[in-house]
Specification:
The protein is an all-alpha fold. It has helices spanning about 15-30, 35-45, 50-75, 80-100, 105-120, 120-130, 140-145, 150-165, 170-175, 175-190, 210-245, 245-275, 275-295, 300-330, 335-365, 370-395. This is NNP family nitrate/nitrite transporter-like MFS transporter.
């Protein structure tokens, strides 16, 4: 790693950065694929609102738990091998689901658990890229690698149309094709950084949890990424249920929202590099809370709802990049396990949002209460950030050279 050159494109390892992005991108595509397919699956299997919410939330929860596992594996066997194992599990699982068919609620939940391995790619792709770059470029590098969450756009754009042509179960098999191509490219280009931390005893991996800053980062990412992925998985259901759109048109609306959130992740990281992660996050939480609170009032038209969701996703996407501008500054030596822990919290946030919208719809006839509660959580995160930012800047932030807190 060349730490003496301050130019981003002259630092790090570009083939690995590209491989991390591509792997993350296609993994995210399949991680949320049940969301765009949900209207068709629900009709075929006769699912109610709560079951629909749980169906799209299970991959998020499974991904959250498996991110912890991947965080441990990354520090012990390296990110490249960890990512290869996860990709093979997802490919095999989708082939089995396609070949045998999925005919029950329990079966689709099992598929969701397998898709969790794709969601766990987060704990691999980010350390894979991060370890190649010096502190002053962490926000940009992790923003580019993390922009792989744009894979959710492909799921929203193409899955409903393919389901209309071939049936939703066939889409699971078709997804294997780009996954297999990505696996080959990943194995050819990705390379573990030469200065990776030495493996530690298993008990040492949870040592960061003794530090209160780790819990703050988990809260902050639980809101930003949890909001992003929870909405990505749920908007197909929302637009079809609330406005009577077809699954294909709902997919286009979802894709617009997800594209906005994905596009600004590297921008959020770069902005955090320039003005500081805490300043960026302060704006993020305020904007996200306002947009989600407005959505909770039940927008009268699909155009108004779409505009508000785009605003919310822009804020949340930028927040994802800003959080991971800060994490490597505070926990560089524990980046593997911290990516797993923080990613776990983000997945839990997404599971909560997706499932709560379904439960709210089942109990009250509308998902609006779920949006309002998540808006309140964004305000809680803003309050927490206000509490800790001065301490961060005067303690560990003061010792960093070339990085802004």
């Amino acid at each position: 790693m060349n730490k003496g050159n301050t130019g981003f494109w002259s630092a790090g390892h570009r083939p690995t950065l590209f491989a991390a992005f591509l792997y993350f991108d296609l993994a995210f595509m399949v991680w949320v694929i049940l969301g765009p397919l949900a209207p068709d699956i629900a009709e075929d299997l006769g699912l109610n609102a709560a079951e629909k919410g749980l169906m799209v939330a299970v991959p998020t929860l499974a991904g959250a738990v498996l991110r912890l596992v991947n965080g441990l594996l990354v520090d012990r066997i390296g990110p490249k091998l960890t990512g290869a194992i996860g990709q093979l599990i997802v490919i095999a699982g989708l082939l089995v689901a396609w070949g045998l068919g999925v005919n029950s609620f329990g079966g689709i939940l099992a598929v969701g658990v397998v898709l969790g391995f794709a969601g766990a790619s987060f704990a691999v792709a980010l350390p894979l890229a991060s370890r190649w770059y010096p502190p002053e470029h962490q926000g940009t590098a992790l923003g580019i690698a993390g922009m792989g969450n744009s894979g959710t756009v492909f799921a929203a754009l193409f899955a409903p149309g393919l389901a209309a042509l071939f049936g939703w179960n066939a889409v699971l098999g078709l997804a294997v094709i780009p996954l297999a191509v990505t696996f080959v490219i990943y194995m050819a280009l990705a390379k573990d950084a030469p200065d990776a931390p030495a493996p530690k005893p298993i008990s040492a991996y949870l040592e960061p949890l003794r530090n209160r800053d780790a819990w703050w980062f988990m809260l902050f990412y639980g809101v930003t990424f949890g909001g992003f992925v929870g909405l990505s998985a749920s908007l197909g259901i929302y637009f079809t249920d609330q406005y009577g759109l077809t699954p294909v048109i709902a997919g286009y609306c979802t894709a617009a929202c997800v594209f906005a959130g994905s596009l600004v992740r590297p921008i959020g990281g770069a902005l955090a590099d320039r003005i500081g992660g805490t300043r960026t996050l302060s704006v993020v939480y305020a904007v996200a809370a306002a947009a989600l609170a407005a959505i909770s009032t039940g927008p009268a038209t699909v155009g108004l709802a779409l505009g508000l969701f785009v605003i919310a996703m822009l804020a949340l996407g930028a927040g994802n990049g800003a959080v991971f501008q800060l994490v490597p500054q505070r926990f560089r030596a524990e980046m593997g396990v911290m990516t797993g822990l923080v990613g776990f919290a983000g997945g839990v946030g997404g599971f909560y949002l997706a499932s709560s919208l379904g439960i709210a719809k089942q109990l009250t006839g509308s998902p609006q209460l779920g949006f309002l509660i998540f808006a309140a959580l964004a305000l809680v995160a803003l309050g927490g950030l206000t509490t800790v930012k001065t301490r961060w800047r005067s303690t560990w932030g003061a010792s960093l050279q070339g990085a802004r807190i």
